[in-house]
Write a structure and sequence with these properties.
- The strands form two sheets. This protein has a six-stranded parallel beta sheet with strand order 7-6-8-9-10-11, sandwiched between helices. A five-stranded parallel beta sheet has the order 2-1-3-4-5.
- The longest helix has 21 residues.
- It has two domains: 120 residues, NAD(P)-binding Rossmann-like Domain (Rossmann fold); 169 residues, 3-Layer(aba) Sandwich (Rossmann fold), CATH 3.40.50.
- 35% of the residues lie in helices and 17% in strands.
- α1 packs parallel to α11.
- It is elongated and about 60 Å long.
- The chain contains eleven helices and eleven strands.
- With 303 residues, it is α/β, with parallel strands linked by helices.
């Protein structure tokens, strides 16, 4: 029997779409590590029996795809395609799809929630009370802030919609967007925003887009939110900016190496979440449903 690999750390196998794949003669193979796979691990799992895969954010490089002898289709469970070498997929006649709309609300809501947590010191207060202390730091209003969005696509625009509901001013930097009144240059955004939230895919060109130089241009007391990709932020430079209190706070849902165990765990003014941007039940159901449907359609077309 032909098989399809599911590399996400969890997946509901009881949906009609998965049952349709099984009825069509495809047996599911799960991620045994239950975490993001390394390049070597995913290559090892792509055995000759695997003809399709529902992919997470593991690196599907040229080496991996060239070695996947019978792989015909990749269905990304999510938006970003930066983890897939599209050129190599095309060269190997592997169809690639994604689920661009399904995670939008979930990621946008997390980003806004993290903004509020940073402004009102919610995690710090929780830890203090549990430690027997009664700390009441003075917070600030989201509605009194200028929110700078790096990336003004589906998620960036949804975040803009949400924060405007609080009364915040929105500016955005996106070299691929045009015509929006919110658009400013990268440097203008760094200098003007009270809160900066990242909503762009990762590439070699924007690795460490937020580096020591960019952080130094941000307002003293600004807040950085990253629910996009870990490689966009130089974590060591961010650590220094937070320790010096040039930034008042940051919140990261994504990291260069996951699971994250680095030095940011040791400081108080950063919130760390475990790459859960799209992990809202309703959003996750929609992503998994669409990914499984896309996979079956691709396999039928690319038989």
């Amino acid at each position: 029997m032909s098989k399809f690999l599911i590399t996400t750390s969890s997946f509901n196998l009881e949906t009609p779409e998965i049952k349709a794949l099984e009825a069509a003669g495809y047996e599911p193979v799960l991620n045994p590590h239950k975490r993001r796979l390394t390049e070597d691990e995913v290559a090892e799992l792509l055995t000759p029996e695997i003809v399709g895969m529902i992919a997470g954010v593991e690196p599907l490089t040229k080496s991996v795809l060239d070695g996947a002898q019978n792989l015909r289709a990749i269905a990304r469970c999510g938006i970003g395609m930066d983890s897939v070498d599209i050129e190599a997929a095309n060269a190997n006649n592997i169809a690639v799809t994604n689920t661009p709309d399904a995670p939008t609300k979930a990621v946008a809501e997390l980003a806004v929630g993290l903004m509020l947590d940073c402004l009102r010191f919610a995690p710090l207060q929780d830890r203090s009370i549990r430690a027997g202390e009664w700390v009441r730091p003075m917070g600030g209003l989201l509605g009194a802030r200028t929110v700078g969005l790096i990336g003004f696509g589906r998620i960036g625009r949804k975040v803009a919609e949400y924060v405007r509901g609080f009364g915040a001013k929105v500016i955005a930097y996106d070299p691929y967007a045009s015509g929006a009144e919110e658009l400013v240059s990268f440097d203008e955004l760094l200098e003007q925003a009270d809160i900066i939230s990242l909503h762009i895919p990762y590439s070699d060109e924007n690795k460490h887009l937020i580096d020591e130089k960019a952080l130094s241009k941000m307002k003293k007391g600004a807040v950085l939110i990253n629910t996009a990709r870990g490689g966009l932020v130089d974590e060591q430079a961010l650590l220094s900016a937070l320790k010096s209190e040039h930034l008042s706070a940051a919140a990261l849902d994504v990291f260069e190496q996951e699971p994250y165990k680095g030095a940011l765990c040791e400081i108080e003014n950063v919130i760390l979440t475990a790459h859960v941007g799209s992990y809202a039940k309703e959003s996750r159901i929609e992503q998994e449903t669409l990914a499984a449907k896309n996979l079956l359609e691709s396999l039928n077309k690319n038989a």
